[in-house]
Give the backbone structure.
Amino acid sequence: MGGDKHRAVLGQRSLLEHVIARVEAQAEALALSGDHVSLAESGHLVLPDYAHLSGPSAGLMSALQWACQRAQALLTVPCDMPFLPVTLASDLAGGSVTVPVLDTRPIWTIAYWPQPCLAEGLAFFDSLDAGAAPPLCAVYEALSVRLMDVADAQAFTGINTPSALEEAEQSCA
């Protein structure tokens, strides 16, 4: 869908606005991760991607650094899942990093990181060779995360194509 996927409109709001509405009440603080200038339009703190990595790992590293200093936990979610449960943080909360699993497939873009695990995540990234940017699954597999089954496929629907956006629009109507 392009680099501005977060701006795609579903109903009367952007995908990002939908996600923020779902997550904001679950968070003591909210920050967005990414290098899109348009993220600043949200009115929330924008964390630039960590300069020495690329892809989702760069965003995760920035979020870990930020949360280590300011939060009791970190919940990561993508901008393209507008129907996330409003109880997602409490559903995933536990003593270890937790990733939801839907139909045997981990959803690597969503994770709950309790405070004690934030430093472990940073240490993992610090141990990488310069410039290495592992896929998210490799990060979580290296940390031996807890995988938790979730049942509501609709809640974890990602809007990744124009046709998926159209389908979501029809289901909201």
Summary: The longest strand covers residues 98-102. The chain has a mean pLDDT of 88.
